[in-house]
């Protein structure tokens, strides 16, 4: 290849700068498309030039002036397959990374005439070869709502891209696991889940990055190749792959987590810290719970638990999706409790299964609140922990947060020191401890939940303030709380009860 003099401002460094500027170099606003041969052939001019290299199509128009071989060299492959040309003269060029921002999509596979019975086999093969599925298997919802996915690769990575078509996506909505060469991704969109479930064709490293472009709803899963060889296909679709189904119609997915610490909170309650696998990306949203699964006397037993922050003093921070992500659980051990007493026997280094998060609470319920009242009994305090951290750090409209905390004795009050410290630290926060079995020395409130206790403490900061009351505790406590609050004039929308 003859080198041609480049215009000023058209050096390799200038090209790299342009690719990093965030400009839309393909004209497709980040969308990847499936390109037919006919479509490719249309883009054969200097001001509109697409080239196919090893099955991937690039819009090289913006690169023309930066190409050391000049326009003429690139135009030899305009609107056509340039793989051979690149192999002959540009073998040393890492075009995958140079032209990454110019990627238009993947060549469509040519239809092959087949006997009727092999058509479905081909369509499955097309899916896994091409990775570009025009439509997901949609169960019970509208087609336009359903996400789709695609994948592309560079020398050292494979990126799976999911187009959710949803604004306001965030990383809490993406749950990802990679285990025994299976990649399982779940993208939560309201009451639905979009599922990726693939046996990957080649090995990847454990550290998987997840990027969410919140405004456009694009989710990128970046897998690092173990052996830097080109992949012919992403992998083999497994059960429910590329389907979009109601979350309630799906079974729970569990991954194995390692117990890394266990600390005393009170005489019968412990803070368990579980380490998520490095290849798991998973954050439990405020107000949601997970299920723990373990074998007890030869039988699988499952119970719900609500992850907490490691302390009340931390500013609200989602756990990182990178290595070292931990789950903290505050669990009361009942001596005769089937599950909790077995949990207490776990040793540091032992494993336990943890499910995906569930729960009906949504952050938007507190976004514009003025008063937040928390009504907790015993371990019913657990969902209040992340909620407290979240609202005190993020909800600017908030005037007051009041916690009424019911326990049997003083020794049962969870994180009492931390709560008292928080009262001193944050003027908006107040807490009242109410004991049902107090000692003679207790000079605080006593008794069980009642209408008079509630109306005394839960006073709005101003008339008609925007309020939410969250309740959690033993079922009869929650039911009584709901009833008393309704009698006191609070409406259904102003009450949220945490239940399974
Ligand atoms: P079980 O075998 O179910 O009970 C056996 C015996 O234990 C009972 O007969 C009784 O003697 C004793 N016991 C059990 N529960 C009680 C009780 N409430 N009051 C008095 N005695 C009792 N628990 C936590 O510790 N932390 C959490 O974060 C948490 N989150 C939860 C989230 C949800 C959505 C729900 C529904 C429950 C949550 N729980 C939590 C409760 C937890 O799921 C179990 O019910 C609890 O650990 C008891 O299970 P177990 O198998 O040990 O006891
Ligand atoms: P506990 O037995 O120590 O009781 C704590 C206080 O709750 C008591 O002092 C009393 O004031 C009140 N209480 C207990 N039973 C009552 C009743 N029948 N009627 C009215 N008030 C009553 O509590 P615990 O052992 O810590 O149990 C906590 C409960 O919270 C468990 O049942 C657990 O399943 C539930 N929980 C639910 C969630 C959730 O998200 N749904 C989360 C955590 C805990």
UniProtKB/TrEMBL annotation:
<keyword id="KW-0479">Metal-binding</keyword>
<dbReference type="GO" id="GO:0020037">
    <property type="term" value="F:heme binding"/>
</dbReference>
<dbReference type="InterPro" id="IPR036400">
    <property type="entry name" value="Cyt_B5-like_heme/steroid_sf"/>
</dbReference>
<feature type="domain" description="CS">
    <location>
        <begin position="144"/>
        <end position="235"/>
    </location>
</feature>
<feature type="domain" description="FAD-binding FR-type">
    <location>
        <begin position="252"/>
        <end position="364"/>
    </location>
</feature>
<keyword id="KW-0560">Oxidoreductase</keyword>
<dbReference type="GO" id="GO:0005783">
    <property type="term" value="C:endoplasmic reticulum"/>
</dbReference>
<dbReference type="InterPro" id="IPR017938">
    <property type="entry name" value="Riboflavin_synthase-like_b-brl"/>
</dbReference>
<dbReference type="InterPro" id="IPR001433">
    <property type="entry name" value="OxRdtase_FAD/NAD-bd"/>
</dbReference>
<protein>
    <recommendedName>
        <fullName>Cytochrome b5 reductase 4</fullName>
        <ecNumber>1.6.2.2</ecNumber>
    </recommendedName>
</protein>
<dbReference type="InterPro" id="IPR008333">
    <property type="entry name" value="Cbr1-like_FAD-bd_dom"/>
</dbReference>
<keyword id="KW-0520">NAD</keyword>
<dbReference type="Pfam" id="PF04969">
    <property type="entry name" value="CS"/>
</dbReference>
<keyword id="KW-0256">Endoplasmic reticulum</keyword>
<feature type="domain" description="Cytochrome b5 heme-binding">
    <location>
        <begin position="32"/>
        <end position="108"/>
    </location>
</feature>
<dbReference type="GO" id="GO:0090524">
    <property type="term" value="F:cytochrome-b5 reductase activity, acting on NADH"/>
</dbReference>
<keyword id="KW-0349">Heme</keyword>
<dbReference type="InterPro" id="IPR008978">
    <property type="entry name" value="HSP20-like_chaperone"/>
</dbReference>
<dbReference type="InterPro" id="IPR001199">
    <property type="entry name" value="Cyt_B5-like_heme/steroid-bd"/>
</dbReference>
<dbReference type="InterPro" id="IPR039261">
    <property type="entry name" value="FNR_nucleotide-bd"/>
</dbReference>
<dbReference type="GO" id="GO:0046872">
    <property type="term" value="F:metal ion binding"/>
</dbReference>
<dbReference type="InterPro" id="IPR037908">
    <property type="entry name" value="p23_NCB5OR"/>
</dbReference>
<dbReference type="GO" id="GO:0006801">
    <property type="term" value="P:superoxide metabolic process"/>
</dbReference>
<comment type="similarity">
    <text>Belongs to the flavoprotein pyridine nucleotide cytochrome reductase family.</text>
</comment>
<keyword id="KW-0408">Iron</keyword>
<dbReference type="InterPro" id="IPR018506">
    <property type="entry name" value="Cyt_B5_heme-BS"/>
</dbReference>
<comment type="similarity">
    <text>Belongs to the cytochrome b5 family.</text>
</comment>
<dbReference type="Pfam" id="PF00175">
    <property type="entry name" value="NAD_binding_1"/>
</dbReference>
<dbReference type="Pfam" id="PF00173">
    <property type="entry name" value="Cyt-b5"/>
</dbReference>
<dbReference type="Pfam" id="PF00970">
    <property type="entry name" value="FAD_binding_6"/>
</dbReference>
<dbReference type="InterPro" id="IPR017927">
    <property type="entry name" value="FAD-bd_FR_type"/>
</dbReference>
<keyword id="KW-0274">FAD</keyword>
<keyword id="KW-0285">Flavoprotein</keyword>
<dbReference type="InterPro" id="IPR007052">
    <property type="entry name" value="CS_dom"/>
</dbReference>
<dbReference type="InterPro" id="IPR051872">
    <property type="entry name" value="Cytochrome_b5/Flavoprotein_Rdt"/>
</dbReference>
């Amino acid at each position: 290849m003859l080198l041609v003099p480049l215009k000023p401002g058209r050096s390799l460094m200038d090209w790299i700068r342009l690719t990093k500027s965030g400009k839309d170099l393909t004209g497709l606003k980040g969308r990847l498309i499936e390109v037919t041969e006919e479509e490719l052939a249309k883009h054969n001019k200097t001001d509109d030039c697409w080239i196919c290299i090893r099955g991937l199509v690039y819009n090289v128009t913006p690169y023309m002036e930066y190409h050391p071989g000049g326009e003429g060299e690139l135009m030899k492959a305009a609107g056509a397959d340039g793989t051979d040309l690149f192999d002959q003269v540009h073998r040393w060029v890492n075009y995958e990374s140079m032209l990454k921002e110019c990627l238009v999509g993947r060549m469509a596979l040519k239809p092959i005439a087949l006997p009727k019975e092999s058509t479905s086999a081909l369509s499955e093969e097309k899916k896994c070869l091409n990775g570009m599925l025009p439509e997901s298997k949609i169960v019970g919802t509208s087609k336009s709502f359903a996400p789709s996915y695609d994948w592309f690769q560079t020398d050292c990575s494979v990126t799976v891209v999911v187009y959710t078509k949803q604004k306001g996506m965030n990383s809490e909505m993406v749950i990802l696991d990679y285990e025994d060469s299976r990649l399982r991704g779940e993208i939560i969109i309201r009451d639905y889940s979009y599922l990726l479930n693939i046996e990957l064709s080649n090995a990847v490293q454990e550290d998987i990055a997840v990027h969410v472009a919140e405004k456009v709803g694009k989710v990128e899963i970046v897998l690092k190749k173990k052996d830097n060889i080109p992949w012919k296909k992403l992998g083999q679709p497994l059960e429910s792959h590329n389907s979009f189904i109601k979350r309630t119609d799906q079974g729970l997915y569990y991954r194995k987590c390692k117990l890394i610490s266990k600390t005393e909170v009170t005489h019968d309650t412990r803070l368990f810290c579980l380490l998520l696998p490095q290849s798991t990306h998973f954050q439990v949203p405020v107000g949601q719970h997970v299920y723990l699964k373990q074998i007890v006397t030869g039988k699988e037993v499952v119970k719900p638990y609500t992850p907490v922050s490691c302390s009340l003093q931390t500013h609200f921070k989602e756990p990182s999706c990178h290595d070292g992500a931990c789950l903290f659980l505050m669990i009361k051990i009942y001596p005769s409790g089937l599950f909790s007493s077995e949990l207490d026997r776990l040793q540091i280094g032992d494993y336990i299964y943890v499910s995906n998060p569930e729960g009906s609470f949504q952050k938007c319920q507190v976004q514009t609140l003025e008063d937040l009242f928390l009504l907790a009994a015993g371990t019913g305090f657990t969902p209040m922990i992340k909620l407290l951290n979240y609202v005190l750090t993020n909800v600017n409209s908030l005037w007051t947060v009041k916690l009424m905390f019911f326990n049997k004795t003083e020794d049962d009050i969870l994180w009492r020191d931390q709560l008292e410290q928080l009262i001193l630290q944050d003027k908006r926060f107040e807490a009242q401890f109410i004991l049902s079995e107090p000692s003679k020395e207790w000079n605080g409130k006593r008794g069980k939940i009642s209408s008079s206790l509630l109306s005394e403490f839960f006073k709005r900061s101003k008339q008609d303030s925007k309020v939410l009351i969250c309740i959690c505790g033993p079922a009869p406590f929650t039911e009584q709380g709901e009833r008393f609050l309704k009698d006191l004039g609070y409406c259904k929308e102003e009450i949220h009860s945490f239940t399974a």
